[in-house]
């Protein structure tokens, strides 16, 4: 990457990587906890998963607000279909950043399990307690989480393709700056 290649802002880079770690962590905990028998460990992991979801929702809101006020660097030269695909995946990622935690919050509310963020801040119920609705929302949350996972894999795959094959510096624009 040449010194003239525009980079994302330090704030955008920090929010990107914080969200990446939080999403991968929440997905991993979600997969692991769902098959555990009812136990203190399972209950603890469910709380951690909820806390991560609320944190992801807050970070997503911050990231979206930052993005609306700060234009990203211009696209690097690439075929038009790749640019359209990249923009579509980014849009779907932003939608999923909100849809996955909101569907989890709604599921938790419908199941009658309140969310108390980090055990300190009680969040309002998103929907009334309704066990049949909770079952549907759980399925929706799982489906959306798997959709987000696929989008993340596509995003990573495209970034690696640009870095390893195209060698166009695209990935380096989102890496923390070296001093």
UniProtKB/TrEMBL annotation:
Belongs to the cytochrome b561 family. Its cofactor is heme b. The chain crosses the membrane at residues 12-33, 48-66, 87-107, 143-165. The lineage of its organism: Bacteria, Pseudomonadati, Pseudomonadota, Betaproteobacteria, Burkholderiales. The keyword Cell membrane applies. It comes from the Bacteria. It holds the Pfam family Ni_hydr_CYTB. It is a multi-pass membrane protein. It comes from Roseateles subflavus. This is Cytochrome b. It is found in: Cell membrane. Its main location: membrane.
């Amino acid at each position: 990457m040449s010194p003239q290649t525009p980079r994302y802002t330090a704030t955008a880079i920090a929010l990107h990587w914080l969200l990446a770690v939080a999403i991968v962590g929440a997905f991993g905990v979600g997969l692991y906890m769902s098959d555990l028998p009812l136990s203190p460990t399972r209950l603890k992991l469910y709380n951690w998963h909820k806390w991560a979801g609320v944190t992801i929702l807050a970070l997503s809101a911050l990231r979206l607000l930052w993005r609306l006020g700060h234009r990203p660097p211009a696209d690097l030269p690439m075929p038009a279909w790749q640019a359209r695909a990249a923009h579509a995946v980014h849009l779907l990622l932003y939608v999923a950043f909100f849809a996955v935690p909101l569907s989890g919050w709604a599921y938790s509310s419908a199941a009658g399990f309140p969310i108390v963020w980090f055990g300190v801040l009680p969040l309002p119920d998103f929907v009334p307690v309704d066990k049949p609705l909770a079952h549907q929302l759980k399925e929706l949350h799982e489906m959306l989480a798997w959709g987000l996972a696929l989008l993340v894999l596509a995003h990573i795959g495209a970034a690696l393709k640009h870095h390893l094959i195209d060698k166009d510096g695209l990935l380096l624009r989102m890496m923390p700056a070296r001093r």
